[in-house]
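Quick sanity check, 1-deoxy-D-xylulose-5-phosphate synthase:
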Amino acid sequence: MEEGSRGGFGAMVLHLLSETGALDAGGVRVRTLTLPDTYQDHDSPEKMYAEAGLDAKAIVKAALDALPAASGKAEPASNVVSVRRRPR
């Protein structure tokens, strides 16, 4: 989880997954949750995150919605992606 906006860390992760072919393998589930690119009225942080869909309840819902339907079968581990820093 990272507080960012469009074009930020989540976009870089999606780019890396695409570059490495990880998204082609199937079963990889990625959800980016970002701050909206709109004007937000000032309020308490809790209320602003809730309005943006970035409060704990919305994050848990996004994570659960990304899970496969319960079938009683374990999914193969082919959706595990290792992200390492490239040497500079």
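Posting the structure with no commentary besides this: The two ends are 25 Å apart (CA to CA).
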